[in-house]
Amino acid sequence: MFGWEFPPHITGGLGTACYGLVKGLAKHGVDIVFIVPRLFGDEDSRSAFLLNASDVEINERNFSYEEYWKHISYYEIGSNLIPYVTPEDFKSMISESSLKSKSKSENIFKAKYKFSGKYGNDLYEEVSRYALVASVLAKEHRHDVIHAHDWLTYPAGIAAKKMSKKPLVIHVHATEFDRSGENINQFVYDIEKKGMEIADRIITVSNLTRNIVIERYGINPDKVFTVHNAVENIGDSNISQNKGFPEKLVTFLGRVTFQKGPDYFVEAAYKVLQKDENVRFVMAGSGDMLYRMVRRVGKLGISNRFQFAGFLKGEDVERLFTISDVYVMPSVSEPFGISPLEAMRSSVPVIISKQSGVAEVLKYAIKVDFWDIDALSDAIYGLVNYQGLSKMFRKYGREEVDNLKWENSALNVKKIYESIIVH
User: Fold this and answer.
1) Among 75, 177, 208, 382, fewest CB within 10 Å belongs to which?
2) Where in the chain is the domain with CATH 3.40.50.2000?
């Protein structure tokens, strides 16, 4: 299985989904070798044993602190890439850091894999290098199926398939149309389309995404299957619920980018505050629209009721949900959207856009069109002012999300594996 991030070092829902799926598959007896580039340094030592190999095995990590981790080996491959960045942003981000590590990295890769060329000069070279590593690992490690998550790993999946002749499954967590609208990056689109064409099976996280794969990439519907994401049950949280102020708190959590619709959240906040000043809003996340949102909040004159919390993960996310009264996900195009499930898990009422995959599986969530600021502000106002409404969504939403288990999603994925394994 090829991924691009894995907790605790994550930049979004991709790593969370991979983590949940891997644990679910392991519980169903699927043995997994999970390969991921190194993103932010060492993984949390409480959940990983680090073995620094001197040959093609690279760095092997065996999660064995719980029974299911006996099925999983975890490899780390040196790389500066992160999954949600554009090729243009990537070049500027790695220019300085790659100079510092270039010599060391080239020596390591040449000694181990005989790679040539400069390390990390552009995105295509990084993706290609990952694919080279994948072909080595596919030759070294016995496997029945190759599973690649999102576009950055599709070339790796293709390379592994060519090396081992084993079936390839690609997992579409998002498409270039979700990230960029109609102004797609042709480089990324071409990689996505190539991966979809070569794959034996395609898993999409929603029917919304499945339709995009079929219609916008011209893929045969017979090999495209929807498996909805899920959420881990964390039980009752012990995190303090004292938020330190009396007002109701409305939360946005996600990348502050076009895809996530942060501007609609800000405009709805302004409308709500015109009717009720006893509400506070928080935007947690980072992205290319962040400074524009800060300026817009200032221009609207609502800075005293609006807070920017930056990128949060782990317990900080749980803490935010425990003090939130409403969670809003106004995404323009959301293949799935795990964060509403995480909010509902903490008994927070949620408002989601109809243009999201998670809307396909949730009954106890208020659904609005992302562009309908009036409907969004009305929904927020209703949940913070009418306790009966809020109480209903808290109770039934929590019950609903408790039934969305990764084990169930993983079983569907396992069935897809079994349909293509050659015995």
Assistant:
1) 382
2) 13-230+406-420, 248-402
